[in-house]
Design brief:
By secondary structure, the chain is of the alpha/beta class. 26% of the residues lie in helices and 27% in strands. It has a 5-stranded mixed β-sheet with strand order 4-3-1-2-7, sandwiched between helices.
Length: 154
């Protein structure tokens, strides 16, 4: 007897990505990302953090490690706390999500901010935390483009 219940393709492995100027805040920001993933029954396979959110994506070792995890197939998607952790504008966010989607991956933000704007109000951001540069694809993975400084920890 056939079932009308859709079949689950299995639990999707994701990575959490946090970029913050305050390294101590990384764990606190990862918790709501983990809850976001858990609510969707995704498996959090790895967590990547970078300090120096103004650095270009390709200068962030955590982002580069995350890109490698995507390329290896360790994870299929990325959960970040805000879009401005990976994009300096809505257009950059859209471009990055399109690049990932073309590869069969995805990127979501637990809190929907607008890059260049504060998270919960409509005024301009007083201290921008969005990266400079743009993401582009290199081989099977993705990389940021430009210059800046970044540090990583997992």
């Amino acid at each position: 007897m056939p079932s009308d219940t859709p079949r689950s393709p299995g639990r999707v492995p994701v990575a959490l990505y946090i970029a913050t100027a305050n390294g101590d805040a990384g764990g606190a920001l990862a918790d709501p990302c983990r809850q976001y993933a858990d609510a969707r029954e995704w498996v959090v396979a790895e967590t990547f953090t970078d300090t120096g959110p103004l650095a270009d994506l390709n200068d962030r070792s955590g982002w580069l490690d995350l890109s490698d995890a995507l390329s290896r197939g360790t994870v299929k998607g990325i959960v970040t706390w805000t879009r401005s952790m990976v994009a300096g504008s809505v257009e950059e966010w859209d471009r990055l999500t399109a690049i990932l989607a073309d590869r069969g991956w995805f990127l979501v933000a637990g809190a929907l901010d607008t890059p260049g704007q504060p998270l919960y109000s409509g005024g301009p951001r007083s201290s921008p935390a969005a990266p400079r540069g743009r993401a582009h694809v290199s081989g099977d993975g993705m990389r940021g483009r430009g210059s800046g400084e970044g540090a990583s920890g997992r």
